[in-house]
Amino acid sequence: xxxxxxxxxxxxxxxxxxxxxxxxxxxxxxxxxxxxxxxxxxxxxxxxxxxxxxxxxxxxxxxxxxxxxxxxxxxxxxxxxxxxxxxxxxxxxxxxxxxxxxxxxxxxxxxxxxxxxxxxxxxxxxxxxxxxxxxxxxxxxxxxxxxxxxxxxxxxxxxxxxxxxxxxxxxxxxxxxxxxxxxxxxxxxxxxxxxxxxxxxxxxxxxxxxxxxxxxxxxxxxxxxxxxxxxxxxxxxxxxxxxxxxxxxxxxxxxxxxxxxxxxxxxxxxxxxxxxxxxxxxxxxxxxxxxxxxxxxxxxxxxxxxxxxxxxxxxxxxxxxxxxxxxxxxxxxxxxxxxxxxxxxxxxxxxxxxxxxxxxxxxxxxxxxxxxxxxxxxxxxxxxxxxxxxxxxxxxxxxxxxxxxxxxxxxxxxxxxxxxxxxxxxxxxxxxxxxxxxxxxxxxxxxxxxxxxxxxxxxxxxxxxxxxxxxxxxxxxxxxxxxxxxxxxxxxxxxx
Amino acid sequence: xxxxxxxxxxxxxxxxxxxxxxxxxxxxxxxxxxxxxxxxxxxxxxxxxxxxxxxxxxxxxxxxxxxxxxxxxxxxxxxxxxxxxxxxxxxxxxxxxxxxxxxxxxxxxxxxxxxxxxxxxxxxxxxxxxxxxxxxxxxxxxxxxxxxxxxxxxxxxxxxxxxxxxxxxxxxxxxxxxxxxxxxxxxxxxxxxxxxxxxxxxxxxxxxxxxxxxxxxxxxxxxxxxxxxxxxxxxxxxxxxxxxxxxxxxxxxxxxxxxxxxxxxxxxxxxxxxxxxxxxxxxxxxxxxxxxxxxxxxxxxxxxxxxxxxxxxxxxxxxxxxxxxxxxxxxxxxxxxxxxxxxxxxxxxxxxxxxxxxxxxxxxxxxxxxxxxxxxxxxxxxxxxxxxxxxxxxxxxxxxxxxxxxxxxxxxxxxxxxxxxxxxxxxxxxxxxxxxxxxxxxxxxxxxxxxxxxxxxxx
Lengths: 496, 459
What we know:
The complex is a heterodimer of chains A (496) and B (459). Helix content of chain A is 38%, strand content 16%. Chain A has 19 helices and 15 strands. In chain A, strands 3-2-1-4-10-11 form a 6-stranded mixed sheet, with no helix packed on it. Chain A is elongated and about 110 Å long. Chain B has one domain (2-458). Chain B has helices spanning 2-21, 28-49, 57-77, 95-116, 127-139, 169-193, 211-227, 230-248, 251-271, 273-283, 305-317, 340-373, 377-401, 419-440, 446-458, and strands at residues 160-162, 165-167, 197-199, 202-204. The interface between A and B is large, with 43 and 61 residues.
């Protein structure tokens, strides 16, 4: 009988080993999968029982706390319940997003693992607080956002006469996002209520609002770029050698008969330096026919490939919030290429992409990857992670960038330049802004005003900030969009 | 060892208080003293009645019993007396006190077994009596008109109510039937071991010898059908097959047993929707994670809410656990009974859970060792069967709540709330210790035989 007993003990051993393996699987390997299951009340509860980390705008003019968790009340079960608070509300909403009991958006969602303290780098910290009996605390996320620039951006958007608009400001040297504002915005504090019924009501109201306040117009809404796209067209022309340089002469008839027989006009049917301007002259006046010609010389596919180098058509871009791709459609037909090269046809752009176009030119043709997170700090102030600026692409050579840059300077400095009055010496004195206006016929908005676009960087000699502004239905880019960019630049550089 | 076990339990108890509200819990003195006293009484009883018994078994049992009380106290306090958490409606404010009282009763049963049964062998005389008792106990809850036959919220009809208390007779039936199996198999083992034909290298038994195993199978199935108690039915059948194997050493019995079990389980899952539901819940727990069956689980209703909550809790505990009093085990319905291991997993973590499984494993190993060491075949068979029963019971319930196997409700030995289970498990440990005492006693002393005979006559 003992032989059978030995075999039976082996069976018992196997049963216990199976149990041990299985609990290891559940508690060690499956642990995070289980935590992420929708409807896991423990994860849900934990969210508000621990102090979530703060979000700090740590750029120039900071640090400024833009999201924090405050102890509000004691629950029936005796635990302190924390509620999210956004001191500046709507101003930073496109950046912070919100963290509600149903879900989160923006930085709150993108860096949730750090903010709630479950990221791998924070586990040692959590263990220490567990052993020392201290409450678990999330990590602080420091953003590159400059409170000065952000405030100027949001207030400028508010005072533009009620148009929907988005704006992004970048540091062209690093790609750090200095400001990102959207109008109309929403108050994220309305969504932090712990009352599910109340939250449902607020959420429904915001979603039903025809002005779409939850939409981040800086990165998730595209508009036709209009003439601002001439930066890309020029870059492609210079880079391919189809256009010798800014001083080369280019045909700019008024009107230009396209291969398909349609006529393309300059703005206000303007005669562009007698129809034979230098490229730089055509640029500062923004003559459509000149750039349509350059676009046709370069060819649709090549033009698109240069746009791609500036970050267009990139559906994978994230800051870390996903960015809607700016689109240059694939075209071979020369007539459509002509339309596309002046930012019409089916071209679509975000405010962020506008800022990236200017930033690449400002940074000697090197486009830096845009980012929001400067660093993440554990509760004991040790740095868990930080962003090292990285190159997204070499859009153009340094020489081409300098050529295009010199043309952008003329837009504001030449008295004939389209933005001379609003971004040139009459408006900003000795500060030199290099920019390009865009006034896009918006077929979508139909009878309404054109969309106003302005993209620029400053100071031209030593670029520190690049801005992209799009005002839906704002009218002329120089009148509606440029002043917004100017206000941000002045606030950020501290000049006035 | 025993002092160490008591110290661990008292420390864990104090820890619950700190974890819940930062204070030493109110009942530390009363419950702590009561537990220490119970354990000490058990210890001296062993010194007196079974001095040669395995010295590790009592500390292991005491540690598990103590940790069970600690967890039940922690669950009772959840949401009560200003402590964090939600109140668990199925636990009353006096549950811990009852559990301590049941532990005392359990230890009393433990001592009684040691006192009255000086030699396990004598039980062999009552083989058929105990077999009948076991069957009656099993059948009791299924008798029409029995009060309180159903465990609230589970659908299992395994209780009977007597004067304000409910008892689960099947728990006691486990011991009676184990004795019956051992007695029957010792008597019939030569017949059963007789090979019939050889087929594919396996000795098949004669057809008429299949009788007992078929009867056991039938009783298990009846239990399953009439009382909706899949876990206990699997436990009894498994124990029977294991003992059959020990007695005959024929692999064929093992294979026949496993085959019958698989066929039975498969057929039951097809025929009875509540058994089929258990399989669905096991394979696809997250699809029915938020289904609530109202008012009590209907036979056809697939709801893995309890299972998934248990898994969430264990996942939440991770490797080191939240610490006693810091977790949220109150999300899992009936966590104090079948799912108590998930509460340990949540608050003590993977580390704590593994340690507790190893304690169970040690207890089983000690039992099997006693079975190997003892010379008398009846004692050998009984001890082997009982030790295997503990292992199987732990496997069925812990495997069930951790989704290793389909979940079948059954108590966790020593840990789950409830007196019947505690009493039975303590009596079971007493039997194992008695066997181990017999096995390890240095030399038979003829003079003691007389005394033993008197005792048996008295019993």
